[in-house]
Amino acid sequence: MKRLLLSLGLITTLLFVFACERKGGPGAGGNSGTIVVGYYGDLSGRTSNFGQSTKNGVEMAADEINKAGGIDGRQIQILSEDDEGRPEKAATVVTKLIDQDRVIALLGEVASGNTLAAAPKAQAAKVPMISPSSTNPAVTQVGDYISRVCFIDPFQGDVMAKFAANTLKAKKAAIMLDFNSPYSRGLTEFFEASFKKLGGEIVDKQSYTQGDRDYKGQLTAIRSKNPDVIYVPGYYGEVGVIAKQAKQLDIKAPMLGGDGWDSTQLWDLGGDALNGDYISNHYSVDDPSPAIQKFVADYRARYGNVPDALAALGYDAMKVLADAIKRAGTTEEPQLKDAIAATKDFPGVTGTISLDKDRNAVKPAVVLKLQDRKYIYVETIYPEGMTPPAGAPAAPATSSTSPAVAPVSSPTKAASPVVETKKAAPSPQ
Amino acid sequence: MDTFVQQLINGLTIGAIYALIALGYTMVYGILRLINFAHGDIYMVGAFVGYFLAFQLGFAAGPSVVGLTVVLIGSMIAAALVGMAIERFAYRPIRKYARMTTLITAIGVSLLIENLFVAKLGAAPRAFPQLLREQSYTLFGNAAISKSQILIFAVSVLLMLLLQWVIFKTKVGTAMRAVSFNLNSAKLMGINTDFIISFTFALGSALAAAAGVLTAQYNPQIDPLMGIITGLKAFVAAVLGGIGNIPGAVLGGLLIGIAETFVVGYGQNVGVPTTFRDAVAFAILILVLLFRPTGLLGSTVQEKV
Predict the structure, then answer these.
(1) How far apart are the first and last CA of chain B?
(2) Most CB atoms closer than 10 Å: which of A428, B25, B49, B205?
(3) Secondary structure string (H, E, C) spanning A262-309
(4) How confident is the model at residue B173 (pLDDT cuts 50, 70, 90)?
(5) Which residues of chain B from 107 to 146 reach within 8 Å of chain A, CB to CB?
(6) Residue B99 has what pLDDT?
């Protein structure tokens, strides 16, 4: 059977190689002609909502720039490739974009695992890559051609730990992580460290892998430890199901997550079971600032739905790249990558973007509450050393004006109307 | 204690699903001595037929008993037809050749179905609509059982009893047993063996489709490759119980389900990581086969000369 599969694989590979006609390189470096930018993401796999949203954001930004006359008269062309959410495929399509299509820069991926597979290719070929939303610290450590426009996991994990300990007053947390995902493992590590530092205790740690079909074993084990909150730093596909099964087990502790939850499909899978959970994210669509509201309105007019954070980050990544090309005055290396690294105080939809010496964006994060298929803004948490700008939404603990903040004393989910639990007597464990 | 009971319930729930699928493997093996590797994909087809039925007939809007019944029976019928078609067009023409030929054909059919679905529908998971109003009942302490779990138990027990009745109390069941005993002799006795084989595929496929729709109520995420691992574990369950033996398939399924859940629930305490859950099913299989090569309930087959 192994040999059969192997020969089948070889035949398909050969067919594929022959079927691919050589396109030649339309893109050229230098200072004139169309600027060809490569985008790669998961357009058909398990996290395809991510890739599609990001692509929408990137294309919308490119169109806006082109309509306004391009960059010094040069138009931008986006070439998209589908990596099916698989790291090995990500490396392949990025190689294709670099070698065949001769792109001057790359935008992508969302999932850190896929970006980590593709980044060495870009670094070796000296093509700058901007990841819109990969938050694992290792991504930009690949080399000086890799940068990103989002915050990183030490900060994101820290934000949720602070929120759990300070706002929800949680003492005991359980963690349920996606074992094979660098994103999930990174967040777990930083949440754990930060939560312990704030005096909390991690009472249980369980893991699953993408594509698992049953999570009740882990959830039952977690339930027996009676945590105040459950941290689930995973992606929407699994998280939705986990929330649903947690509800079936009558777990009342709210679940906390990261930006990996942000997708419309989350609600199709989890439904009302998600009510009362919290996530950290890059921006809130409810933010009244005119720049954000214009972006949301334009996006909705173009694609017919509300932009998630990934769309906003894709949009920002393209805009940051365009800004760098403009400042560099060329798409030649190393001027372009230096210009990207020098990005400072760029007004993006997801906040003011400045890249630090490791080419990571330093930005605040927002905490959102999940309620009836909506993400309700709760509070903004700033990185240490960054002061909230004047007129920004209220600082953490004082945001009691917001109706979304849960009663601080009991971090328990409100019973949702659809799932009723019949308990003979509320007996303690 | 309530945690233990809860894990037991969790294990029995997925065990019941494995058992339903394992029945299809074991029945086809009993009659044709063929491992129908496409069977796990029938489970996936069942879930997808249910998904499209729910949306086409408007049952996706809200939970309803009628909707669930129609979707369940509809997908069972559709999967039975698919199973019969596979038998008719892929296995029957080559039945007279070596057993290896049919085995490899089965792998081919499995890959064909999976990739056809990926090509037509994409590999991205879809969310199966909620057809059952979710509710959980506390048994004692923290141990709770949810409606979807009760549904899985009830429907699978019902279907297994029905299967038992078909096999032992009906004429077609008697014919099935005769064919499984000896195909050629059965033919000489005037049994329409082609029909019986077709019927067996239909029966097994319908059970797999029921499993597909039932799991979708428990875990709404469905995708074209969902049948691979689940199908493989159901196959292990069938072999564990003794392939060709119907009560064995049910026992094997339940054992695999419970073992898997206990690895997740208690493995960490003894140093077995949660991610070993899939490995455990196969480890058990190897152990059992070492000591009882025919499986738990299987009987030794006399090779007749």
Answers:
(1) 55
(2) B205
(3) CCHHHHHHHHHHHCCCEEEECCCCCCCCHHHHHHHHHHHHHHCCCCCH
(4) very high
(5) 107, 111, 122-127, 130, 133-138, 140-142, 144, 146
(6) 84
B223 contacts on A by Cβ (under 8 Å) = 46
For A210, nearest residue in chain B (alpha carbons): B275
Residues of B in contact with A44 (CB under 8 A): 122-124
Q: What whole-number distance in Å separates Cα of residue A90 and Cα of residue A97?
A: 11
* Interface touch A421/B261, C-beta < 8 Å: no
CB contact under 8 A, A223 and B223: no
3-state secondary structure (DSSP) of residue A78: strand
> Looking at the predicted structure, is the pLDDT value of residue B154 above 50?
yes
Whole-number percent of chain B with pLDDT over 90: 56
> Which of A188, A248, A267 to mutate to test binding with chain B, by most B CBs within 10 Å of its CB?
A248
Question: Percent of chain A beyond pLDDT 90?
Answer: 52
Structure tokens at B35: 């491992």
pLDDT tens per residue, range A355-374: 998 999 988 899 999 998 88
* Residue recorded with tokens 């930005």: A363
Global pTM? 0.80
CA dist A82 to A97, A132, A234, B139, B222, Å?
11, 16, 22, 48, 21
Pairwise pLDDT comparison (A196 vs B62), residue with the higher score:
A196
Q: What is chain B written as a DSSP string?
A: -HHHHHHHHHHHHHHHHHHHHHHHHHHHHHHH----TTHHHHHHHHHHHHHHHHHHTTGGGS--HHHHHHHHHHHHHHHHHHHHHHIIIIIGGGTTS-HHHHHHHHHHHHHHHHHHHHHHH-SS-EEPP--S--EEEEEETTEEEEHHHHHHHHHHHHHHHHHHHHHHHSHHHHHHHHHHH-HHHHHHTT--HHHHHHHHHHHHHHHHHHHHHHHHHHS-EE-TTHHHHHHHHHHHHHHHH-TT-HHHHHHHHHHHHHHHHHHHHHGGGGT--GGGHHHHHHHHHHHHHHH-TT-SS--PPPPP-
pLDDT digits (tens, 9 = 90+) for A61-114: 999 999 999 898 899 999 999 998 899 999 999 999 999 999 999 998 999 999
Q: If pLDDT is split at 50, 70 and 90, which confidence band does A180 have?
A: confident
The span from the CA of A429 to the CA of A191, in Å, is 27
What residues of A are in contact with residue B266 (Cβ under 8 Å)? Answer: 221
pLDDT band at A409 (very low <50, low <70, confident <90, very high): very low
Instruction: Tell me whether residues A206 and B138 touch, CB distance under 8 A.
Output: no
* Chain A contact present for B233, CB below 8 A: no
| Nearest chain B Cα distance for residue A109, angstroms | 17
